[in-house]
Structure formats: C-alpha cells, structure tokens
Design a protein that fits this description.
The complex is a heterotrimer of chains A (283), B (275) and C (329). Chain B is α/β, with parallel strands linked by helices. Chain B has helices at 23-26, 71-77, 106-112, 127-138, 144-154, 158-161, 174-186, 204-217, 230-236, 254-259, 264-270; strands spanning 31-42, 45-56, 60-64, 88-96, 99-100, 113-116, 192-196, 222-226, 239-244, 247-253. Chain B has eleven helices and ten strands. In chain B, the strands form two sheets. Chain B has a six-stranded mixed beta sheet, with helices on both faces. In chain B, strands 2-1-4-5 form a four-stranded antiparallel beta sheet, covered by helices on one side. The longest helix of chain C is centred in the C-terminal third of the chain and has 40 residues, at 288-327. Chain C is mainly α. The chains are: A mainly alpha (283), B alpha/beta (275), C mainly alpha (329). The B-C interface holds B 36-37, 83, 85-93, 100, 102-103, 105-108 and C 1-9, 14-16, 19, 21-22, 24-25.
Chain lengths: 283, 275, 329
C-alpha cells in the first residue's frame, strides 16, 4: 500500500469518526437537557407545585396550579380554533379543490407556518387584545390556534391523499355521495395520521411562550372565564428564571420538567402511532 | 352478419341458431342495458368509437380485448364511474330498462348497477360493516344482520366468516376479500353487477371459486365482466364482446365467437396472434 | 333516440323533481362550500396578518421611512426609534449560530446518512426529532443557569487569553451577550440542519456513490467529493431554513443576550435582537409611536423570514428534482 493511499485512508477514518462525534454531541444534548431538568426540577415537582397558587414575591413555597390550568385552557382554545380550520381545509384541498386554489392555500399555510411566533403574538394582539382593550385567555388561545393551523392542514392533507383511490371508488360504486365517502371511508382510513398531526401540533404550541407574552399576559391568581389574562407554564418558566429569587429558580426547573415531560411524551406517542402504519393495509 | 370495413360497427343480437337446444337459449332475450352510439373522450383524446351494445338480462356478458382497447373504460361508463375523472366526456346514450342513465341521479343509479374492482378494496372496517355499508346508505327491508347474511351466502363466503363477522376485513385472504367485495356489492340488490377483471389479482383456486359464483349469480342479476383471460370468458359468459382500440369489433354468443368468429381480427386475437 | 352529450356534472341542477336524492346530491355542494370556507380562511388570516403588520406600523413608517432600518438610536424617551441595533444583534447571533451548527449538523447528517446502519440512523433521528421539539423557553432555562456560568467562568476568559487580540474577544465578559446567544441558538438549530440534510443526503441516488467507490475513492472522498456536492442545493436549503428559525427565536435569546441595544464588534458585549426587544418592551411601550415601532420591527422580522423560507424551499425542491432526474440516466 502506497503512502498516499495510507494517508487517504487515514483521512477517511478520521473524518468519518468526526462525523460520529458530531452526531454524538447532538444527541447527547438531548439527554443532557433531560438529565439537568430531572436533577434540578425533580425534587421540586411535588404536590404543592400542582395545587398551590404562586406565593407572594419573596416568600418561599407556593406552586403553579394557576399556570397549569391556564395552559390547559389556552391549549383547549387553540385546538378548538386551529384544528377544525386545518382539518376541514385539508379535506377541501385533498378532495374538492383544483390546482390553483390548492396551491394558494398551501402557500398561505406554509407562509403562516414560517412566521416567527412573536409576530403571531403581535397579530393576535391587534386582533383580540386591542378591540377588547385588555389581555385575555381568548387572545392567547387565538395566537396558539393560529400556529396549529398550518401543521394540521398540511399533515391532514397528506394523509388524506395517501388513502388509496380504490377505497373511494368502492364507496362511490355503492352509491355513496362524495361527502359520505369522505366521512365514512376516507377519514376513518386516515385517522391515525390525522391524529398524530394534531398531537404534534399540540405539542409544538404547548411550549410556546413568545405569543403569550402580550396576549394572555400573565396572572398571579386564578383566571376565571376566558376574557381575563391568564398565567401559563411557559411564561412562568420565563418569569421565574430571570428573577433573582432562588426559590423561583427551583420552581422554574420543576415547571420546565413538567412541560418538557408532557411535550416529549406526546411526541413519542405520536411517533409510535405513526410507525404502526398509516396507510391502509393491503393483502 | 358481417363486420364492415367502417370503424363504426352496429351489432344487434339475434337468438343463436346452432347452439345446443336449451330452453334458456331459445327464450326471447330481455335487454337490461343498452349502449347506444357511445363515443367517449378523455380530454381531446377519443377512447371509445361509436359503441352499440345490448346487455341481456340475467346473462353474463364479457368484454374482452387487448390492453388499452377500452373495455374497462366502457365498463365504467355503465355506472357512470367515468365521472370521477374530470376530463372525461361521454356522447351518446346508455339506457337501463329504457331509461337514460345519464339523466338519472347518479347515486340512485349506482345502487342499481354495482361494481367489483380489479383489486379487492374492502373498507377498513369489520366484515359485517363492509357488507352493511351500502345498506346503511340506501336502506334495506330486512334487518341488517339478515341482509348481511343473505349477501354473504350469495357470495359463497358465509360459512367461512360467519363466526368472525366483527373481525377486520383485512384479515381475510385475497380471494376472500374479493368475495367480500362481491357480497358488499350484492347487498344492495343491484340489477346489474359490473366486474372489472375481478380475478386478475387472485390465485387460481380463488379464481375458480369466483368463476363458479358468477355463473350462479345470473339468477340474481345481470353480469358484465371485463377480462383479459379469454379462457375465463369462454368458461363463464353467455355473450362476449370483442373490443380493439376503442371499437366494438364483434359481439356474439360466446360459443359462436370463440369457435366461428365473423371478423378476422377477432380470430387473430383469440388464436393468440396478438394481444 | 336523441343523442345526449353529458359532461362531468358541475353542480348545475339536474332535470327532474327535487327528490330526496337530488338534495343528497346538493349535500356534496354544501360540503364543498363549507370546506372551501375553512380553506379560504387560512388564506384570509394570512393576508390579514400582513395587513395588520403594515397598518400597525403606520406611524413610524411615515415618520422615519427607510431611515428606520439604519438608525442605531433606540430612545423611547425622546421618541427616537431605529432598528439597526436589533437587526445587528439578530444577524450576528444567527450567523454565529450557523457557524457552529452547520459543521456539526452536516457532520452528523453525513454520519446518519452514509455510515450508520439504517436502524441506528432511524433511532438516532428519532432522538434528534425529539430535540427539535424542545421549546425555546427550556433552552433559555439551560442558557441562564448552565451556559452563562460556563461562558463567564471558563469559555470567555479562555477566548480572551488566547484570541484577545481580535476585536471579537475584547471587553468585559459577563457570560451574557452575542456569543452566548449564538451558542444557545446553535444548539437549537442543529436538529433542523441534521434532519433536512440527512433526508437530502439519503435521496442522492446510490449510483453516484457507487461510481465514486468503483473508481477507488475512500468512503470519505466519495462523500465529500461526490455526494455532498450533489446534495449541495438541498443542504443550502436546510441552512436557510435553520437561519430563518434562528432569526425568529425569541425566548432563549432574550434570556441570555443581555437586552441592551448596543452595536459592538465584541462578542462578549450584551446586545439585543428584534424578537427579544419586542418580547421585552411590547407591554411597556408608552405611546403609539413606541408601540408601532415595535410592530414595524415585527414587520421587518416577518419579511426577513418570509424571504429566507421561500428561498430555502426553492432550494430543497430543486435538489429533489435533480435527484430524480439524474437517477434515471
């Protein structure tokens, strides 16, 4: 073996080992994050965390019950607002529309998807906060819902299109009208994919902070109804992390653990459902 | 009756003179469906030329011909499935019991004219729900379970699935799935059943079972079957239509077409010189 | 018998009475209309967003015009608003992030696409996808409590000692600032670069690699000299996508950048980004000009990410087209 060849082989092994290291670093970060969250936040996730309201500034103790409920309400609103638009819009794209309209709708959805979340916050602010003249759960829900639309729309469309034409024809040959075919055959055939799309969209907006900063704003107490400002987990993490109180830092870690745990669990569940097979099985 | 040199061939059926004397063959034939001067286009391209065809009631009519001759296209016009393609255009008339199907409501038509497809396409539901699907849409006089049992018996599938009606249809074998699709189509009691190469995706044993089934189903409904397998057409059908590049070349009682074809092209196809 | 010409039904009423069956047919029309309205609302909402950004920034656009983009003064008390410090901070942190993330990300993508066996590659990709799902505020949390102390105690002093002659590494080092923000951003965008690049690399037709190997190239040479160039456009696309994401990142950046509208060559200096200033000052903005200036910053950010995303998608589409075309040769 010549020297040159030996050198080239060495370079090859070296560089490829480097790429392995890059991968290792990237994946290690995930475990590092999880590890730290568990380490710092694990002990603070206690019953108080889930049931108590935040304590007055400077006092120890207290929890994030209102933030948890607040996040729950915001996400519920987001789903109610974003999922139907994405779902029915996708049905239009996959089943009814012609090329041009479909292109425009998809382009708009992709555009919306690429808008930074803080700008979505500005939009929701001018839509909901300004007319009502105060921050509200509704505004936060709208902001998050807007972010759910593109993901739900594009994924649902993809899964609807993946349903084989033969199933549709089978139903139509039995005398089913188009909407009935869609409702009783096409959507059930694609339901797994659609479900995962919604779950992934949900997980994405569950962690969003920026759009809530001036829509739902924040609240140290319970937020009754839908028209008052409300606390939320991500915003609490932010507020507590940058504050000077040790106790708040501890709670921020706990909240981070709970939030990330929720998001990761949803992601894993969604991907497992997806891997079980989305396409209609063939013989 | 001679085939003319013109592209348009108009063929009408006359009762066969030399077939074995069975009462069935000599009784006057009722026409269930009629295809009248049909021309069919996909966009600018013409695919069927001046088709005239009569489908006899309670008989099996087969459409044969080489790939691309238009037999599947013609079949799909009979229940207006061609309308799922945007650029399709049909000229002429198609009648069922002397009513123009093109003027009728399409979903009502499809209850009267059912279809079984080339590859089995059961819904992602249970066996029971697959058969019940058409009944749920269109209504039935019997109870749901009675109607489902009746159809499954007609499709010669009942004994094999009666204990597993609530299992997924996908757990059945290919041949069973196709019989399930036949049961599903029969459940709404169609007058005509269209089958588009129903056995091409199946093994020989399943094929034989289905062919047996088709001959018996004549008592229930009129059957039109597209097949690329000439032996199958000869085994199963009473009348055979031979198509070539969108034209109807010959249409005769099956024994006559296969033993003494009138057109040279028919003879060339059935003797395997092309296609 | 008369000949009837029938075209595909377009919703015109059929001859005949309005029986139940006819109304059922109209059910399809209603379904089409309803779903169209939902689909149309997506377009409407997007247009409305652009409109609101434009309208909402009316005052500063008219008062400052294009000077807004190049003024470096941001003084709410005297109603002087300039976007330059924020544009600078956004660009610097994003470029820094790319500088770190691109080599790491492409390296990992190469490993996953070329070297790792399929199952390992898929499993690792699964973890990478999970990493992409971690919210910004969690990265911020880590940034505040872990990255900042490390930067302050170890990294920045080390850089100062070794490379302090460069203007980038001068000045007091508190652990916050452009460099820290860049590093946190890098960690956040690596998963995107890996995912997209890996897909692009996997789509390079096998015969390209085989041609190189058959000529006696080493694995690395085949990757570096043949596969990567082939996938070049798509990988560029992934970089632009990552850049677009980095530009819009709010929480993690605002928690570590120092939130001071400064333009400085030193990476140790605290700074500000567009998203960060909006996040911090929006609720405190007194007066319409102040608020609308922040909205105008939002408009600038929107335009930046819009252009980048569009460009990125174009590049990725171009690669996949090339891939399929050449694979058939």
């Amino acid at each position: 073996m010549s020297n040159r060849l030996r050198w080239r082989k060495f370079v090859s092994h070296f560089m490829l080992t480097l790429t392995g290291i890059c991968t290792f670093v990237a994946v290690a970060v995930l475990f590092f994050i999880l590890g730290y969250l568990v380490y710092h936040g694990g002990t603070s996730v206690n019953w108080n965390f889930f049931t108590k309201l935040p304590a007055p500034v400077g006092e120890a103790g207290g929890g994030m019950a209102n933030a948890i409920v607040g996040s729950g309400k915001l996400l519920l609103l987001a789903c109610l607002f974003g999922v139907p638009i994405g779902f029915f819009g996708a049905i239009y794209l996959a089943e009814f529309s012609g090329g041009t309209i479909a292109f425009i709708v998809r382009y708009a959805a992709d555009l919306l998807n690429g808008v930074p979340s803080i700008v979505i916050g500005i939009f929701a602010y001018s839509l909901v906060v300004l007319p009502f003249k105060h921050f509200s759960t509704l505004a936060g829900g709208v902001a998050l819902g807007l972010m759910m639309i593109p993901i739900t729309l594009r994924s649902t469309e993809e899964f609807l299109r993946a349903v084989p034409k033969s199933l549709r024809e089978g139903a139509m040959a039995l005398g089913a009208s188009k909407w009935r075919t869609i409702a009783s055959v096409v959507v059930p055939a694609a339901y797994r994919g659609i479900l995962t799309a919604v779950l992934l969209a949900f997980a994405r907006v569950a962690g969003e902070t920026a759009p809530l900063l001036f829509t739902a704003f924040g609240n140290r107490f319970w937020s009754p109804g839908w028209t008052q400002p409300t606390s939320s987990l991500p915003v609490m993490i932010f507020t507590y992390a940058i504050a000077p109180y040790e106790d708040w830092h501890r709670q921020a870690w706990a909240a981070g653990l709970v939030l990330l745990g929720l998001i990761l669990v949803i992601n894993i569940v969604a991907r497992v459902i997806l891997s079980r097979g989305v396409a209609v099985p063939r013989t | 009756m001679h085939a003319s040199a013109r592209p348009a061939v108009s063929v009408k059926i006359t009762p066969p003179v030399t077939t074995p004397s069975s009462r069935e063959a000599q009784a006057p034939l009722v026409m269930r469906m009629t295809v009248d001067k049909v021309n069919f286009f996909y966009g600018p391209k013409q695919v069927l030329f001046d088709i005239d065809l009569n489908i006899a009631a309670s008989k099996v009519t087969s459409l044969i011909g080489p790939s691309g001759c238009g037999k599947s296209t013609l079949l799909r016009t009979l229940n207006r499935m061609h309308e799922t393609v945007r650029s399709s255009r049909l000229e002429g008339q198609i009648l069922i019991d002397n009513q123009n199907i093109l003027a009728e409501d399409v979903t009502a038509l499809r209850r009267r004219v059912g279809m079984v497809f080339q590859r089995p396409n059961p819904f992602p539901k249970s066996i029971f729900e697959n058969v019940a699907y058409g009944l749920r849409i269109n209504g039935t006089k019997l109870s749901m379970s009675d109607a489902v049992e009746k159809s499954l018996r007609h499709a010669a599938l009942w004994d094999e699935v009666k204990d597993q009606l609530h299992k997924s249809a996908y757990e059945l074998s290919g041949g069973q799935q196709q019989r399930l699709c036949i049961a599903r189509a029969l459940a709404v009691e169609p007058e005509v059943l269209l089958l588009d190469e129903p056995c091409s995706a199946l093994d020989p044993i399943s094929t034989a079972k289905i062919e047996e089934l088709l001959v018996q189903l004549r008592d229930l409904c009129t059957i039109v079957i597209v097949t690329h397998n000439m032996q199958q057409a000869a085994r199963v059908s009473d009348f055979t239509a031979f198509l070539l590049t969108g034209q109807l070349i010959e249409f005769s009682p099956t024994p006559q077409l296969f033993t003494t074809p009138s057109d040279a092209r028919t003879e060339a196809y059935i003797t395997g010189r092309f296609g | 018998m008369a000949t009837t010409t029938s075209t595909v039904p377009s919703g015109s009423p059929i001859a005949g009475s309005r029986s139940f069956i006819t109304r059922l047919r109209d059910g399809d029309e209603i379904a089409r209309l309803i779903t169209f309205l939902f689909a149309g609302s997506v377009v409407f909402v997007t247009l409305l967003l652009v409109y609101e950004l434009w309208q909402g920034s009316f005052l500063p656009r008219h008062k400052f015009g294009f000077a807004f983009l190049v003024t470096s003064v941001w003084d709410p008390i005297f109603d002087k608003f300039g976007a330059l410090p924020f544009i600078y901070g956004t660009v610097v942190t994003s470029l820094l992030a790319l500088l770190i993330a691109v080599p790491l990300g492409i390296g990992a993508a190469i490993f996953l696409a070329e070297l790792a066996p399929a199952r390992v590659s898929d499993t690792l990709q699964f973890f990478i996808d999970l990493l992409a799902a971690v919210p910004s505020v969690i990265y911020g949390l880590l940034g505040v409590f872990i990255v900042i102390p490390i930067m302050r105690q170890y990294v920045e002093p080390a850089l100062k000692d070794s490379l302090g002659f460069l203007p980038f590494f001068q000045g007091p080092a508190y652990g916050i600032g452009f460099l820290t923000a860049g590093i946190v951003l890098a960690i956040m965008v690596i998963p995107y670069i890996i995912s997209v690049s890996r897909e692009v690399l996997l789509s390079v037709p096998r015969d390209q690699r085989e041609a190189a190997l058959a000529l006696g190239a080493t694995r690395w040479e085949s990757t570096w000299k043949v596969v990567l160039p082939f996938a070049r456009t798509g990988i560029m696309g992934s970089i632009f996508l990552a850049l677009a994401r980095a530009l819009g990142e709010t929480m993690a950046v605002t928690m570590v950048i120092g939130n001071t509208p400064t333009i400085s060559a030193s990476l140790f200096s605290p700074g500000y980004s567009i998203a960060a200033v909006i996040a911090n000052e929006f609720t405190e903005a007194t007066g319409d000009l102040y608020l609308q200036s922040l909205i105008e910053l939002g408009l600038v950010l929107f335009l930046l990410t819009f252009l980048l995303n569009g460009f990125a998608r174009l590049l990725i589409v171009l690669t996949s087209q090339r891939g399929s075309g050449m694979g058939q040769a």
